[in-house]
Amino acid sequence: VQSYISNLGRKIATSNGLEGNPYNYTFTAVDVDYVNAFALPAGTVMVTTPLIAMAETEAELAGVIGHEIGHIVGRHGLENVKR
Question: What whole-number distance in Å separates Cα of residue 20 and Cα of residue 41?
């Protein structure tokens, strides 16, 4: 599962010209008992295993990962810290 999430996330980041620009992204599957995905500053995306199991298609999962990448690109975490 970890390898799958990491590869899918890297594929999304690379195909959009984001890898190394300015971050080296990491994508991690988190084994907890709730559905969630979140982004941390500097390129870290976490996706919980129940969310992965809930996704019916790879496209759904890619949409979630892309959404979280959008938070990083938009620097939403940093903006929240500033407020």
Answer: 14
